[in-house]
Amino acid sequence: MIGRLDGEVLTPGDTGYDELRRTFVHAGRPALVVRCRGAGDVAAALDHARTEGLTVSVRGGGHHTAGFATNDGGIVLDLSYLDGVEVVDPARRLVRIGGGATWGRVSKTLAGYGLALSSGDTANVGVGGLLLGGGIGWLTRRYGLALDAVVAADVVLADGTPVRASATQHQDLYWALRGGGGNLGVVTAFELVAQPVTDVVYGTVRYPGERAADVLRHWARHAAAAPDELTSAVDLAPGDGPAMLSVCYAGGDPAAAETAVRPLRPDVPELGDDLRPVPYPEILAELPGLPPGFRMAVRSTFVREFTPALIEALVAASAAPMVAVNVRALGGAVDRVAPDATAFAHRGHAALVTAVAMGDELAVAHGEPLLDELMRRIDPYVTGAYPNFASTDRPADVAAMYPAATRRRLAAVKRTYDPGNVFRRNYNITPAD
């Protein structure tokens, strides 16, 4: 049995078990779900897992589409009680966030202080998973990846030892946590430096689907020259749906935002736009409940250069009725961090491409080969993969996410902090890599 806990242990049949065994698009059947209330609970659960030889999954928001946050027959460490958000030093804008918090809670709490953090796009998504993998969102070009704001983390290691990782303590672990995924330990709290953001100008300009190539071509030509305050993306809807230019200007001045956005607008008839100043928390979408049987397959990669062939392939892929394509501008503050400063290995690229097939099991089965074919077609113009936007778990995925030099360095940290590879429900770096 697990030692004394402040939280609870749920087993099949207990109230709440069915909810916590499920993630965004996956449903496992773990032997135990431990609802942790602190580092002591995490340590006790890990001790039990080691003793019993149980697979360990860590559940924050539970939105990774590879389903790492659940398993069959193992133990799930649910961190949802660890959801505190505290501004510990307003003068330094220093914020402490529990490893089980979600970005919606974070953004609303910080808004009361006139602050924000560059996060993902979605209110429901967990802080921990996004920070450990990267954090590409609507303030990225202005303030960098979400993980670039992390200055310290409280971590429970595989043997139950609590440590603090920062630029002065366990520096190798601090480097590895920022981009290395869940490979090194369970983060019970992060400390980050927030930014003075209140309102932003946000919205979408819609164009006819048959002009998607023109929209994407024009945007690709001009997005890199936009001011850092402007983060933008083009969405190609499945089938004959519209092409959409989405923008977020990090500031509430509509005139300045329009000046920044104007060069991105192609000479194509618009179907309308909804650009407007809004409080930052309002741009984080609330993911709806999904119908039974809903599935999602995701591929992502980074653009080295936009070419006519790349644009043609992206537009062709979105012509399928179940495939959506998103192309998001990078650069700006992302590239002002040294490539080896963190374990996130994909700085210096023009954009992130994400392709998604979604629907019932049959639709996704038809869509996955289309995604793989798209990745093959665009391979000459892209590189790598983004750990937070993926649904497969193959050796090739890990190799794409972590280039050889990064992987070797991560493996060395893994040998120090998790030599038994307890934390392997992730894009796994083994101690032997």
TrEMBL record:
GO MF entries: FAD binding; oxidoreductase activity
Pfam short name (any one): BBE
Positions of the FAD-binding PCMH-type domain: 26-197
Obligatory cofactor(s): FAD
Keywords, comma-separated and alphabetical: FAD, Flavoprotein, Oxidoreductase
PANTHER family: BINDING OXIDOREDUCTASE, PUTATIVE (AFU_ORTHOLOGUE AFUA_1G17690)-RELATED (PTHR42973), FAD-BINDING PCMH-TYPE DOMAIN-CONTAINING PROTEIN (PTHR42973:SF39)
Similarity-based family: Belongs to the oxygen-dependent FAD-linked oxidoreductase family.
Protein name in UniProt: Oxidoreductase
Annotated source species: Actinocatenispora rupis
